[in-house]
Design goal:
The protein is mainly beta. The chain has 3 helices and 70 strands. Strand 11 and strand 12 form a beta hairpin. The structure holds calcium ion.
């Protein structure tokens, strides 16, 4: 009897399913709207293969458990959303798969939103095998979120996100007062591909919550994702809620850290961080109560301070919700920290952050410092962190004693690719043996790989160009990565040349080309980059002022400029800047080597961004073995504000000479850089060097320079209350008249 009843129900369900489950093919936006209205649980709406331009998809409906309403592609990966497209889901049991967003940007502040509008959220819904590749707003300051999770029980999996160059989190769980907060979302098996440094706060790859609602639990899970060079800012993953689990992710050469920024009781477990010694690669940063960080593996992480392999921060007594709550009851155990630069305890201790970690444990961790150095640093009181059972590869003067045994540690790479001690006595110390690094083929959409990285300089075709030829025409006819090879002779540049991709212009070997410039030389307009080598630029007859190389507003993605063996003669001191950046643009690198500049304005004019929001124009500015005479400044670099979210800018100058130069009290002004290294240069008859610290823990070294008839270098502090930080040493300052 019982058996018979069960059988009848099963047949009934199966018949009903067969009767209603339909594939509804749609070929245009009108058909799509009708299909959404008609769709019943179990139905699939199928977009025809091809390009769908300017398609703002509103996908709503009510599916059922086991019978979702699905929106998918006729062929996965053959439906491309371009132009101003986006996707909103609202309802229950909805699934989206197989779509690509590429060649455009969202017209709104989100690309994929798990809500139709503020009243219609999505629940128990899923986005799987979806690609967003380079779908960035062209102005890097214009903010959007690529995937915004609202509601509860939603999942984002097996998707591919790469190339976000504008502000805003790649994937955010949004938790507003009044919306459900116990989210229970799952974010798994995704490929988070390269995200270049943003040069501002707002470059996180994942954020769960915001400070306002951070004392409630989101209970979301982030697992078995790959983070590949996700270097947008100091927070790769920013947890701002409680009860989340972040486990078994693989983090490759990514600058920044997983940060338990707000909220309590999160678990960070069995993640693998491989930094390959890329600067600023970090691990896990702990703030707040009841956080567990266990069984993680960290190798080759070069980051220090907030980007240490592990950092445990100091808090603010009675902190307001958006500052730093004191660390209490943190349990940090069985992690392996190998070939890594730092473990920082009581990180960020200062007059405001004076509440030391309390009631916390640091146990059975295995520590092997980089280059045989002790990675431990304590920036404040650490008596509230109980150390026990840790093992550290022997260093000369260990910071920590009891609870951190010093001994020989021999490591061997296991079948899973990770390093473990060979001594069986250490079996219970460090990360577990059964870690299984997630493989590339386990994550993302298996039918999608991003384009090969854009052609590097000098990898394309070399095209010789005679002096009689038009440089403008030749530039227009190039492809990314090409080199224009110039002969001895004069090339006239009457109006600035436009650069839309990476290009090298170089004097042929032994040749001495001269570019005679009437009104600026180059405009970098987008996706661009410029390398000049072995040539002279004569701008001495230039009319008007302006810049030799102007980087236009809206240039994206990040570009770079290199000048090597370039001689520039300008129209007079104070006129014609060298390289000038519009606000909102961002260079990975600006490099000047073996070059000469005379009678000009500011050679690198990088003060376009005047808002105090932490935006800055380039990650690295490097000057070496170059000569500057009668220029307004060698470089004027500005990063304003006190935000602590970024890595740079980095500035380095070495082996160069500066004569009869300067204005406004400086011949070189570096403001807001995180790293400044100025060594072995000579300054004569010039204004001095001014380095201004505004934020973070800047590292400045001004060493082994010579100053003749030039004031001594200065470091100014805008926020720090103590004496100016930094090293000024070994300089020779001759009497200044
Ligand atoms: Ca941030």
């Amino acid at each position: 009897m019982l058996l018979r009843a069960a059988l009848t129900i099963a047949i009934g369900a199966s018949t009903a399913h067969a009767a209603v489950a339909r594939d509804i093919a749609v070929a245009d936006q009108v058909q799509f709207k009708a299909a959404v209205k008609a769709a019943k649980p179990g139905d699939s709406i199928i977009l025809a293969d091809g390009e769908w331009r300017d398609f703002q998809i509103a996908f709503t409906g009510t599916g059922a458990a086991g019978k979702p309403i699905t929106l998918t592609a006729q062929t996965k990966g053959k439906v491309i959303l371009t132009g101003q497209s986006n996707l909103r889901l609202g309802g229950r049991h909805l699934v989206v798969s197989g779509l690509i967003f590429r060649g455009g940007a969202s017209p709104t502040d989100q690309i994929i939103s798990f809500r139709r509008d503020s009243k219609t959220l999505a629940f128990d819904s899923r986005v799987t095998e979806v690609v967003i590749d380079g779908y960035s707003k062209p102005d890097r300051r214009a903010e959007d979120i690529w995937v915004a999770l609202y509601g509860t029980g939603n999942r984002v999996d097996h998707s591919h996100f790469e190339g976000k160059t504008n502000a805003g989190v790649t994937l955010a769980v949004i938790r507003r007062a009044g919306d459900p907060l116990d989210n229970r979302h799952r974010i798994d098996h995704n490929y988070f591909g390269p995200r270049p440094p943003l040069g501002s706060n707002g470059g996180e790859t994942i954020r769960i919550g915001t400070s306002e609602e951070s004392l409630s639990a989101s209970n979301s899970i982030v697992e078995r994702n790959i983070f590949d060079r996700t270097s947008g800012e100091v927070e790769i993953v920013s947890i701002k809620s409680g009860g989340n689990i972040i486990r078994e992710n693989l983090v490759l050469e990514s600058q920044g850290a997983f940060v338990l920024r707000h909220g309590n009781g999160n678990l960070v477990e069995r993640n693998i961080f491989l930094g390959k010694n890329v600067p600023d690669t970090g691990g896990v940063r702990v703030i707040n109560r009841d956080q567990i960080v266990r069984g993680n593996y960290f190798e080759g992480l070069a980051g220090t301070s907030f980007k240490s392999a592990i950092s445990v921060m100091n808090g603010v007594p009675n902190s307001v919700i958006n500052r730093y709550h004191q660390v209490a009851n943190a349990q940090i155990g069985n992690n392996s920290i190998i070939d890594s630069a730092r473990i920082t305890l009581a990180a960020g201790a200062d007059a405001e952050r004076s509440a030391a970690p309390t009631g916390s444990k640091f146990e059975r961790n295995l520590i092997v410092g980089a280059k045989g150095q002790d990675p431990f640093r304590a920036e404040g009181e650490i008596a509230g962190i109980a150390l026990s059972g840790n093992v550290e590869a022997k260093v000369a003067k260990p910071l920590l004693g009891a609870g951190v045994e010093q001994r020989e540690v021999k490591l061997e790479r296991a079948a899973n690719g990770l390093l473990y001690p060979t001594d069986p006595a250490l079996a219970a110390v460090g990360a577990p043996r059964d870690l299984k690094p997630v493989k590339r083929e386990e994550v993302g959409a298996n039918w999608y790989r991003g384009n090969a990285p854009e052609a590097a300089f000098g990898t394309g075709t070399t095209r010789p160009l005679a002096a009689s030829a038009s440089l403008a025409q030749a530039v227009a006819g190039t492809k990314a990565g090409d080199t224009l090879s110039l002969a001895t002779g004069t090339y006239d540049v009457t109006t600035p040349l436009s650069f839309r991709h990476r290009l090298t212009i170089a004097g042929a070997k032994g040749a001495k080309p001269v570019l005679r410039v009437a009104a600026g030389f180059a405009r970098i307009e987008g996706g661009g980059g410029l390398q000049l080598e072995n040539l002279a630029i004569d701008a001495s007859k230039l009319s008007g002022d302006g810049a030799l190389i102007a980087v236009d507003a809206g240039v994206a993605p990040n570009y770079s400029v290199t000048l090597d063996r370039v001689t520039v003669r300008g129209p007079g001191k104070g006129r014609l800047d060298g390289i000038a950046m519009a606000p909102g643009t961002f260079a990975d690198d600006v490099t000047i080597a073996n070059s000469d500049f005379t009678d000009m304005g500011v050679v690198v004019a990088a003060t376009g961004e005047q808002q105090p929001k932490g935006w800055y124009p380039m990650e690295r500015l490097t000057i070496s073995d170059s000569r500057f005479a009668r220029v307004a400044m060698v470089a004027d670099l500005l990063r304003k504000g006190t935000d602590e979210s970024t890595f740079g800018p980095w500035f380095a100058m070495s082996g160069s000479s500066v004569a009869d130069s300067g204005r406004e009290g400086a011949s070189l002004r570096i403001s807001g850089a995180q790293h400044a290294d100025i060594t072995q240069n000579s300054f004569a008859g010039s204004e001095g060097i001014l380095v201004i610290h505004s934020v973070g823990a800047p590292e400045t070294r001004i060493a082994s320079n010579a100053f003749a008839a030039t004031p001594a270098p200065r470091i100014e502090e805008l926020a720090w209350k103590g004496p100016p930080r930094g090293v000024i040493s070994g300089n020779i300052v001759e009497a200044h008249p």
